[in-house]
What we know:
The complex is a heterodimer.
Chain A lengths: L2 E4 L2 E10 L3 E3 L9 H11 L3 E3 L7 H15 L7 E7 L10 H8 L7 E5 L5 H13 L6 E8 L19 E9 L6 E7 L7 E2 L17 E2 L5 E2 L5 E2 L1 H22 L9 E4 L4 H11 L10 H4 L6 H9 L1 H6 L2 E9 L3 E9 L3 E2 L3 E2 L1
Parallel strand pairs in A: 2-17, 2-18, 5-6, 5-7, 14-15
Antiparallel strand pairs in A: 1-9, 2-8, 3-4, 7-8, 9-16, 10-13, 11-12, 15-16
Helix pairs in contact in A: 5-6
Chain B lengths: L2 H11 L21 H15 L5 H5 L4 H8 L7
Amino acid sequence: MAFITFKNISIRGIASAVPHQKVKSDTLPCILTPEEKEKIIKSTGIRERRFAPPEICASDLCHAAAEKLLQEMKIDRTEIDLLIFLSQTSDYIMPSTSTILQHKLGLPKTTATFDINTGCAGYVYGLSTAFAYASLPGIRNVLLLTGDTLSKTLSPEDRTTYLLFGDAGSATLIAQSDGNAESFFSLKSDGAGENAIKITAGGARFPATADTLQMNELGDGSRRNKHHLAMDGVDVFNFTVREVPDDIRNILEYAKKKPEDTDYILFHQSNKYILDFFSRKLGFPSSKIPMSLEKYGNTSAASIPLTLVTSLKKEIENRDTRVLLSGYGAGLSWASAFMTLRNCHICELVEI
Amino acid sequence: MKKQEFIDELKKRLEIEDTEVNETTVFSSIKGYDSLSVMTLIAMADEYFNKRFSADQIRSLTTVQSLFDLIGNEQFEK
Protein backbone atom coordinates (compact mmCIF):
# COMPACT_ATOMS: atom_id res chain seq x y z
CA MET A 1 0.00 0.00 0.00
CA ALA A 2 1.42 3.36 -0.94
CA PHE A 3 -1.56 5.69 -1.19
CA ILE A 4 -4.73 6.19 0.86
CA THR A 5 -7.74 8.41 0.21
CA PHE A 6 -10.11 9.62 2.90
CA LYS A 7 -13.48 11.24 2.28
CA ASN A 8 -15.30 13.54 4.69
CA ILE A 9 -12.67 13.55 7.41
CA SER A 10 -11.33 16.87 8.56
CA ILE A 11 -8.98 18.55 10.99
CA ARG A 12 -11.28 20.56 13.26
CA GLY A 13 -8.59 22.38 15.21
CA ILE A 14 -4.87 22.61 15.99
CA ALA A 15 -2.93 23.97 18.96
CA SER A 16 0.80 24.04 19.70
CA ALA A 17 2.79 24.60 22.88
CA VAL A 18 6.46 25.40 23.49
CA PRO A 19 8.52 25.91 26.66
CA HIS A 20 9.10 29.57 27.43
CA GLN A 21 12.89 29.30 27.77
CA LYS A 22 14.62 30.66 24.66
CA VAL A 23 18.04 29.43 23.60
CA LYS A 24 19.89 31.59 21.08
CA SER A 25 22.22 29.72 18.74
CA ASP A 26 24.86 32.44 18.48
CA THR A 27 25.40 32.76 22.24
CA LEU A 28 24.93 29.10 23.19
CA PRO A 29 28.16 27.70 24.68
CA CYS A 30 29.34 24.70 22.68
CA ILE A 31 32.51 23.17 21.24
CA LEU A 32 32.14 24.88 17.86
CA THR A 33 34.25 27.94 17.08
CA PRO A 34 32.33 31.18 16.41
CA GLU A 35 33.07 30.78 12.68
CA GLU A 36 31.81 27.20 12.62
CA LYS A 37 28.70 28.22 14.55
CA GLU A 38 27.98 31.07 12.17
CA LYS A 39 28.31 28.73 9.17
CA ILE A 40 25.79 26.30 10.68
CA ILE A 41 23.36 29.05 11.69
CA LYS A 42 23.56 30.51 8.19
CA SER A 43 22.88 27.22 6.38
CA THR A 44 20.31 25.79 8.80
CA GLY A 45 18.52 29.09 9.39
CA ILE A 46 18.03 28.07 13.04
CA ARG A 47 18.71 31.12 15.21
CA GLU A 48 16.76 30.29 18.32
CA ARG A 49 15.00 27.36 19.96
CA ARG A 50 12.97 26.54 23.07
CA PHE A 51 14.40 24.13 25.65
CA ALA A 52 12.14 22.52 28.24
CA PRO A 53 13.30 22.58 31.89
CA PRO A 54 13.87 19.20 33.61
CA GLU A 55 10.32 19.01 34.96
CA ILE A 56 8.62 19.50 31.59
CA CYS A 57 8.24 16.55 29.20
CA ALA A 58 6.76 16.28 25.73
CA SER A 59 3.56 15.03 27.34
CA ASP A 60 3.29 18.28 29.31
CA LEU A 61 3.66 20.36 26.17
CA CYS A 62 0.99 18.24 24.46
CA HIS A 63 -1.21 18.49 27.55
CA ALA A 64 -1.03 22.29 27.47
CA ALA A 65 -1.81 22.35 23.75
CA ALA A 66 -4.73 19.96 24.21
CA GLU A 67 -6.23 21.96 27.09
CA LYS A 68 -6.04 25.14 25.01
CA LEU A 69 -7.68 23.45 22.04
CA LEU A 70 -10.45 21.66 23.93
CA GLN A 71 -11.34 24.70 26.03
CA GLU A 72 -11.35 27.16 23.14
CA MET A 73 -13.41 24.89 20.93
CA LYS A 74 -15.68 23.97 23.87
CA ILE A 75 -15.31 20.28 23.10
CA ASP A 76 -17.36 17.81 25.12
CA ARG A 77 -14.57 15.53 26.40
CA THR A 78 -16.95 12.57 26.65
CA GLU A 79 -17.03 12.63 22.85
CA ILE A 80 -13.31 12.01 22.40
CA ASP A 81 -13.13 8.36 21.46
CA LEU A 82 -9.41 8.03 20.75
CA LEU A 83 -6.29 9.72 22.06
CA ILE A 84 -3.01 9.09 20.23
CA PHE A 85 0.30 10.28 21.68
CA LEU A 86 3.09 10.34 19.10
CA SER A 87 6.62 10.95 20.34
CA GLN A 88 10.11 9.54 20.69
CA THR A 89 10.55 11.14 24.12
CA SER A 90 7.71 9.47 26.02
CA ASP A 91 7.42 9.88 29.78
CA TYR A 92 8.19 6.23 30.55
CA ILE A 93 9.03 2.95 28.89
CA MET A 94 5.79 1.77 30.48
CA PRO A 95 2.84 2.58 30.71
CA SER A 96 1.98 4.43 27.49
CA THR A 97 1.96 8.20 27.85
CA SER A 98 -1.38 8.43 26.01
CA THR A 99 -3.07 6.66 28.91
CA ILE A 100 -1.50 9.03 31.44
CA LEU A 101 -2.78 11.93 29.34
CA GLN A 102 -6.28 10.41 29.16
CA HIS A 103 -6.38 10.77 32.92
CA LYS A 104 -4.78 14.23 33.06
CA LEU A 105 -7.18 15.57 30.45
CA GLY A 106 -10.21 14.18 32.27
CA LEU A 107 -11.24 12.03 29.32
CA PRO A 108 -13.73 9.21 29.96
CA LYS A 109 -12.73 5.56 30.33
CA THR A 110 -14.37 4.96 26.98
CA THR A 111 -11.47 6.79 25.30
CA ALA A 112 -9.09 4.39 23.55
CA THR A 113 -5.41 5.29 23.93
CA PHE A 114 -2.15 4.26 22.35
CA ASP A 115 1.31 5.68 21.70
CA ILE A 116 3.07 5.80 18.37
CA ASN A 117 6.88 5.87 18.27
CA THR A 118 7.83 7.74 15.10
CA GLY A 119 10.11 10.69 14.47
CA CYS A 120 9.96 13.55 12.06
CA ALA A 121 7.57 11.81 9.64
CA GLY A 122 5.29 11.42 12.67
CA TYR A 123 2.73 14.16 12.14
CA VAL A 124 1.68 12.81 8.76
CA TYR A 125 1.86 9.20 9.96
CA GLY A 126 -0.16 10.18 13.06
CA LEU A 127 -2.74 12.07 11.01
CA SER A 128 -3.23 9.09 8.70
CA THR A 129 -3.91 6.89 11.74
CA ALA A 130 -6.28 9.45 13.25
CA PHE A 131 -8.09 9.84 9.94
CA ALA A 132 -8.41 6.07 9.60
CA TYR A 133 -10.04 5.69 13.02
CA ALA A 134 -12.17 8.79 12.50
CA SER A 135 -13.65 7.28 9.37
CA LEU A 136 -15.11 4.37 11.36
CA PRO A 137 -18.71 4.55 12.57
CA GLY A 138 -18.78 5.03 16.32
CA ILE A 139 -15.68 7.24 16.42
CA ARG A 140 -16.72 10.83 17.02
CA ASN A 141 -13.49 12.71 17.75
CA VAL A 142 -9.84 11.70 17.64
CA LEU A 143 -7.26 13.72 19.54
CA LEU A 144 -3.74 13.42 18.09
CA LEU A 145 -0.95 14.72 20.31
CA THR A 146 2.54 14.95 18.83
CA GLY A 147 5.57 16.32 20.62
CA ASP A 148 9.18 15.82 21.63
CA THR A 149 11.73 17.20 24.05
CA LEU A 150 14.76 16.32 21.94
CA SER A 151 16.80 19.00 23.73
CA LYS A 152 17.12 16.50 26.57
CA THR A 153 18.73 13.94 24.23
CA LEU A 154 21.46 16.19 22.84
CA SER A 155 25.14 16.06 23.74
CA PRO A 156 26.42 19.65 24.12
CA GLU A 157 29.67 18.34 22.62
CA ASP A 158 28.08 17.04 19.43
CA ARG A 159 29.01 19.18 16.44
CA THR A 160 26.17 17.79 14.29
CA THR A 161 23.12 17.89 16.53
CA TYR A 162 23.53 20.47 19.27
CA LEU A 163 22.36 23.49 17.25
CA LEU A 164 19.44 21.79 15.50
CA PHE A 165 16.71 20.43 17.73
CA GLY A 166 14.12 22.27 19.83
CA ASP A 167 11.13 21.28 21.96
CA ALA A 168 7.43 21.56 21.16
CA GLY A 169 4.09 19.78 21.52
CA SER A 170 0.84 19.90 19.59
CA ALA A 171 -2.79 18.84 19.71
CA THR A 172 -4.93 18.16 16.65
CA LEU A 173 -8.63 17.30 16.70
CA ILE A 174 -9.92 15.13 13.88
CA ALA A 175 -13.52 14.14 13.11
CA GLN A 176 -15.92 13.27 10.34
CA SER A 177 -17.55 16.16 8.57
CA ASP A 178 -19.93 16.49 5.65
CA GLY A 179 -19.22 17.91 2.26
CA ASN A 180 -15.50 17.94 2.79
CA ALA A 181 -12.88 17.56 0.16
CA GLU A 182 -10.90 14.35 -0.04
CA SER A 183 -7.54 13.94 1.63
CA PHE A 184 -4.67 11.83 0.36
CA PHE A 185 -1.79 10.17 2.17
CA SER A 186 1.41 8.34 1.24
CA LEU A 187 3.44 6.48 3.88
CA LYS A 188 6.88 4.95 3.30
CA SER A 189 9.73 3.33 5.18
CA ASP A 190 13.34 2.17 4.78
CA GLY A 191 14.87 0.40 7.75
CA ALA A 192 18.22 0.19 5.97
CA GLY A 193 18.64 3.69 7.36
CA GLU A 194 18.33 2.48 10.95
CA ASN A 195 21.53 4.18 12.02
CA ALA A 196 20.97 7.53 10.33
CA ILE A 197 19.20 9.05 13.35
CA LYS A 198 19.44 7.01 16.49
CA ILE A 199 19.48 6.86 20.27
CA THR A 200 21.23 3.54 20.84
CA ALA A 201 20.87 2.75 24.56
CA GLY A 202 18.01 2.71 27.06
CA GLY A 203 15.82 0.27 25.18
CA ALA A 204 15.74 -3.52 25.27
CA ARG A 205 18.61 -3.96 22.79
CA PHE A 206 21.15 -2.00 24.88
CA PRO A 207 19.83 -1.39 28.40
CA ALA A 208 21.41 1.39 30.42
CA THR A 209 24.73 0.47 32.04
CA ALA A 210 27.67 2.41 33.40
CA ASP A 211 29.28 1.85 30.00
CA THR A 212 26.40 3.34 27.96
CA LEU A 213 26.74 6.53 29.98
CA GLN A 214 30.42 6.96 29.07
CA MET A 215 31.20 9.80 26.71
CA ASN A 216 32.90 8.56 23.54
CA GLU A 217 35.19 10.57 21.30
CA LEU A 218 34.15 10.74 17.63
CA GLY A 219 36.23 11.37 14.54
CA ASP A 220 35.26 15.02 14.20
CA GLY A 221 36.04 15.96 17.80
CA SER A 222 32.46 15.48 19.00
CA ARG A 223 31.71 13.51 22.16
CA ARG A 224 28.52 11.76 23.15
CA ASN A 225 27.29 8.73 25.04
CA LYS A 226 24.95 6.00 23.84
CA HIS A 227 21.89 7.80 25.26
CA HIS A 228 22.50 10.88 23.17
CA LEU A 229 20.85 11.45 19.81
CA ALA A 230 23.29 10.48 17.06
CA MET A 231 22.75 11.69 13.51
CA ASP A 232 24.70 11.15 10.32
CA GLY A 233 23.93 14.50 8.70
CA VAL A 234 25.15 13.55 5.25
CA ASP A 235 23.20 10.27 5.18
CA VAL A 236 20.02 12.01 6.27
CA PHE A 237 20.46 14.80 3.73
CA ASN A 238 21.17 12.30 0.98
CA PHE A 239 18.05 10.29 1.88
CA THR A 240 15.94 13.45 1.93
CA VAL A 241 17.15 14.55 -1.51
CA ARG A 242 16.66 11.05 -2.88
CA GLU A 243 13.14 10.41 -1.61
CA VAL A 244 11.19 13.54 -0.71
CA PRO A 245 10.82 15.42 -4.03
CA ASP A 246 9.58 12.25 -5.75
CA ASP A 247 7.23 11.58 -2.83
CA ILE A 248 5.69 15.00 -3.28
CA ARG A 249 5.36 14.64 -7.03
CA ASN A 250 3.73 11.24 -6.48
CA ILE A 251 1.17 12.44 -3.94
CA LEU A 252 0.19 15.33 -6.20
CA GLU A 253 -0.20 12.95 -9.13
CA TYR A 254 -2.23 10.53 -7.01
CA ALA A 255 -4.48 13.33 -5.79
CA LYS A 256 -4.77 14.60 -9.38
CA LYS A 257 -3.51 18.01 -8.28
CA LYS A 258 -0.93 20.35 -9.75
CA PRO A 259 1.54 22.49 -7.78
CA GLU A 260 -0.71 25.49 -8.55
CA ASP A 261 -3.51 23.70 -6.65
CA THR A 262 -1.47 23.92 -3.46
CA ASP A 263 -1.65 27.05 -1.32
CA TYR A 264 1.15 26.02 1.04
CA ILE A 265 3.61 23.17 1.57
CA LEU A 266 4.26 22.35 5.19
CA PHE A 267 7.60 20.57 5.31
CA HIS A 268 9.01 19.04 8.43
CA GLN A 269 11.33 21.79 9.69
CA SER A 270 14.75 20.13 9.54
CA ASN A 271 16.85 23.01 8.16
CA LYS A 272 16.56 25.90 5.72
CA TYR A 273 19.17 24.50 3.35
CA ILE A 274 17.00 21.50 2.44
CA LEU A 275 13.78 23.56 2.34
CA ASP A 276 15.41 25.95 -0.13
CA PHE A 277 16.53 22.92 -2.13
CA PHE A 278 12.94 21.63 -2.24
CA SER A 279 11.76 25.06 -3.32
CA ARG A 280 14.18 25.08 -6.27
CA LYS A 281 13.68 21.42 -7.14
CA LEU A 282 9.87 21.38 -7.03
CA GLY A 283 9.32 24.88 -8.36
CA PHE A 284 7.39 26.08 -5.31
CA PRO A 285 8.10 29.73 -4.45
CA SER A 286 9.37 30.27 -0.93
CA SER A 287 6.22 32.32 -0.21
CA LYS A 288 4.37 28.99 -0.30
CA ILE A 289 6.80 27.34 2.15
CA PRO A 290 6.18 28.71 5.65
CA MET A 291 8.87 28.05 8.25
CA SER A 292 9.06 27.86 12.02
CA LEU A 293 12.67 26.67 12.22
CA GLU A 294 14.20 30.10 12.63
CA LYS A 295 12.68 30.60 16.08
CA TYR A 296 11.98 27.03 17.15
CA GLY A 297 14.49 24.78 15.34
CA ASN A 298 13.80 21.20 14.36
CA THR A 299 10.86 20.24 16.58
CA SER A 300 10.43 16.69 15.28
CA ALA A 301 6.82 15.50 14.85
CA ALA A 302 5.49 18.78 16.26
CA SER A 303 7.16 20.89 13.56
CA ILE A 304 4.31 20.84 11.03
CA PRO A 305 1.52 21.79 13.48
CA LEU A 306 3.85 24.37 15.08
CA THR A 307 4.41 25.94 11.68
CA LEU A 308 0.68 25.94 10.94
CA VAL A 309 -0.02 27.69 14.26
CA THR A 310 2.78 30.27 14.07
CA SER A 311 2.59 31.08 10.34
CA LEU A 312 -0.86 30.37 8.91
CA LYS A 313 -3.49 31.00 11.59
CA LYS A 314 -5.16 33.91 9.75
CA GLU A 315 -5.05 32.26 6.35
CA ILE A 316 -6.50 28.97 7.56
CA GLU A 317 -9.27 30.58 9.58
CA ASN A 318 -10.38 32.91 6.79
CA ARG A 319 -10.65 30.58 3.84
CA ASP A 320 -10.28 27.03 2.58
CA THR A 321 -6.56 26.32 2.54
CA ARG A 322 -5.11 23.59 0.36
CA VAL A 323 -2.01 22.18 2.03
CA LEU A 324 0.59 19.63 1.16
CA LEU A 325 2.29 18.09 4.20
CA SER A 326 5.70 16.39 4.03
CA GLY A 327 7.46 14.65 6.91
CA TYR A 328 10.78 12.74 6.69
CA GLY A 329 13.28 11.50 9.23
CA ALA A 330 14.23 8.81 11.70
CA GLY A 331 13.50 5.24 10.65
CA LEU A 332 14.05 6.11 7.98
CA SER A 333 10.43 7.05 7.37
CA TRP A 334 8.77 9.58 5.15
CA ALA A 335 5.19 10.51 4.46
CA SER A 336 3.21 13.12 2.60
CA ALA A 337 -0.40 14.22 2.47
CA PHE A 338 -2.61 16.58 0.51
CA MET A 339 -5.76 18.02 2.07
CA THR A 340 -7.97 21.09 2.24
CA LEU A 341 -8.31 22.75 5.63
CA ARG A 342 -11.85 24.10 5.99
CA ASN A 343 -13.50 25.47 9.15
CA CYS A 344 -10.30 24.63 11.00
CA HIS A 345 -9.73 26.43 14.30
CA ILE A 346 -6.14 27.46 15.04
CA CYS A 347 -5.22 28.47 18.59
CA GLU A 348 -2.63 31.06 19.45
CA LEU A 349 0.70 29.52 20.45
CA VAL A 350 0.85 28.36 24.08
CA GLU A 351 4.01 28.93 26.13
CA ILE A 352 4.53 27.11 29.41
CA MET B 1 26.88 21.78 -18.30
CA LYS B 2 30.66 21.55 -18.75
CA LYS B 3 32.86 20.05 -16.07
CA GLN B 4 34.57 23.39 -15.55
CA GLU B 5 31.20 25.09 -15.08
CA PHE B 6 30.29 22.51 -12.46
CA ILE B 7 33.59 23.15 -10.66
CA ASP B 8 33.03 26.93 -10.81
CA GLU B 9 29.51 26.61 -9.39
CA LEU B 10 30.80 24.28 -6.68
CA LYS B 11 33.52 26.76 -5.69
CA LYS B 12 30.88 29.49 -5.54
CA ARG B 13 28.54 27.48 -3.31
CA LEU B 14 31.38 26.38 -1.03
CA GLU B 15 32.68 29.98 -0.93
CA ILE B 16 36.18 28.88 -2.03
CA GLU B 17 36.52 30.96 -5.20
CA ASP B 18 40.20 31.60 -4.42
CA THR B 19 41.06 27.91 -4.07
CA GLU B 20 42.52 25.93 -6.96
CA VAL B 21 40.15 23.03 -7.75
CA ASN B 22 40.39 20.57 -10.65
CA GLU B 23 39.46 16.93 -11.38
CA THR B 24 42.36 15.55 -9.37
CA THR B 25 41.55 17.57 -6.24
CA VAL B 26 40.82 15.36 -3.25
CA PHE B 27 37.64 16.70 -1.63
CA SER B 28 38.79 16.19 1.94
CA SER B 29 41.91 18.26 1.26
CA ILE B 30 39.87 21.39 0.49
CA LYS B 31 40.13 23.90 3.33
CA GLY B 32 36.93 23.98 5.38
CA TYR B 33 35.51 20.90 3.62
CA ASP B 34 32.90 19.44 5.97
CA SER B 35 29.55 17.67 5.97
CA LEU B 36 27.85 20.82 4.66
CA SER B 37 30.20 20.63 1.67
CA VAL B 38 29.17 17.02 0.99
CA MET B 39 25.53 18.08 1.13
CA THR B 40 26.31 20.75 -1.46
CA LEU B 41 27.71 18.06 -3.79
CA ILE B 42 24.58 15.95 -3.30
CA ALA B 43 22.31 18.92 -3.97
CA MET B 44 24.23 19.94 -7.11
CA ALA B 45 24.27 16.42 -8.58
CA ASP B 46 20.52 16.24 -8.09
CA GLU B 47 19.72 19.75 -9.31
CA TYR B 48 21.82 19.65 -12.45
CA PHE B 49 21.70 15.96 -13.39
CA ASN B 50 18.75 14.48 -11.46
CA LYS B 51 21.34 12.08 -10.10
CA ARG B 52 20.80 10.53 -6.68
CA PHE B 53 23.13 8.32 -4.71
CA SER B 54 23.15 5.62 -2.09
CA ALA B 55 24.87 6.33 1.23
CA ASP B 56 27.75 4.04 0.17
CA GLN B 57 28.30 5.92 -3.07
CA ILE B 58 28.61 9.19 -1.17
CA ARG B 59 31.08 7.60 1.23
CA SER B 60 33.16 6.37 -1.72
CA LEU B 61 33.85 9.89 -3.05
CA THR B 62 37.55 10.81 -3.10
CA THR B 63 38.46 13.26 -5.89
CA VAL B 64 36.38 15.61 -7.99
CA GLN B 65 36.79 13.09 -10.82
CA SER B 66 35.20 10.37 -8.63
CA LEU B 67 32.10 12.57 -8.43
CA PHE B 68 32.12 13.05 -12.20
CA ASP B 69 32.38 9.24 -12.58
CA LEU B 70 29.39 8.74 -10.28
CA ILE B 71 27.33 11.31 -12.14
CA GLY B 72 28.51 9.81 -15.43
CA ASN B 73 31.19 11.56 -17.52
CA GLU B 74 28.89 11.40 -20.57
CA GLN B 75 26.43 13.72 -18.73
CA PHE B 76 28.80 16.66 -19.14
CA GLU B 77 29.18 18.80 -22.23
CA LYS B 78 32.58 18.62 -23.88
